[in-house]
């Protein structure tokens, strides 16, 4: 089944404790991206990747890192999480042009 | 400034009724417009996509329209079902300098279909 998977789905952590949210797609898509969704603000892009080893900042990249060492994986790294990073996170992928397919989301709470 | 505005913010209808959601955009240069459905706590799922030259696109009970002159789009849901309860998000794609496509997301309309 063609899909985008994220892990973990739910995460509670404390301020400053590094964490990684994994994202994987099995559709051989070139483009992958990370979004966060907050009430009243909609979806905002954090980082995106046009292909392997090519990443770029989205609209709200501060406090986040990404890497794209393999085509199928695009992990999101929070080196030192803070409470304002509490949010619902979505990974998405698509071909160079085409519809984005979203993962199921990761709900993060930073205490 | 590129913007996508949706109305109403929320809507409650009875099962079986029709409804129309609105999307106004101020985006340039326009590439295409998509409607997504997002169930609570889940990722958005694409319903329709329309380019500049298309003025209507259907997907089952969902029909999207696009007026590129007035920069307005609507999503019409026919014979609503309980499973239509979700947030509906309008997304406009722009291609700024550098040919790197960018998406401008609306805040969505929250639809509740009651029995």
Describe the structure.
The complex is a heterodimer of chains A (111) and B (115). Chain A is an all-beta fold and 111 residues long. Helices cover 0% and strands 51% of the residues of chain A. In chain A, the strands form 2 sheets. In chain A, strands 2, 4, 5, 6, 9, 10 and 11 form a 7-stranded mixed beta sheet that branches. In chain A, strands 1-3-8-7 form a 4-stranded antiparallel beta sheet, with no helix packed on it. In chain A, strand 4 and strand 5 form a beta hairpin. Chain A is globular, with a radius of gyration of 13 Å. Chain B is an all-beta fold and 115 residues long. Chain B has strands at residues 3-7, 10-14, 19-26, 30-38, 45-51, 56-59, 62-67, 72-77, 86-94, 102-105, 109-114. In chain B, the strands form 2 sheets. In chain B, strands 2, 4, 5, 9, 10 and 11 form a 6-stranded mixed beta sheet that branches. In chain B, strands 1-3-8-7-6 form a 5-stranded antiparallel beta sheet, with no helix packed on it. Chain B starts with a strand and ends with a strand. At the A-B interface, strand 5 and strand 9 of A face strand 5 of B.
Could you provide a short overview of the structure?
Helices cover 0% and strands 51% of the residues of chain A. By secondary structure, chain A is an all-beta fold.
**Number of DSSP-assigned strands of chain A:** 11
Distance between the termini of chain A: 36 Å
Order of helices and strands of chain A: EEEEEEEEEEE
Find the structural class of chain B using helix and strand composition: mainly beta
Approximately how much helix is present in the residues of chain B?
under 10%
Largest sheet of chain B: 6 strands, mixed
Number of helices of chain B: 0
Tell me the Rg of chain A in angstroms: 13 Å
User: What is the overall silhouette of chain B?
Assistant: elongated
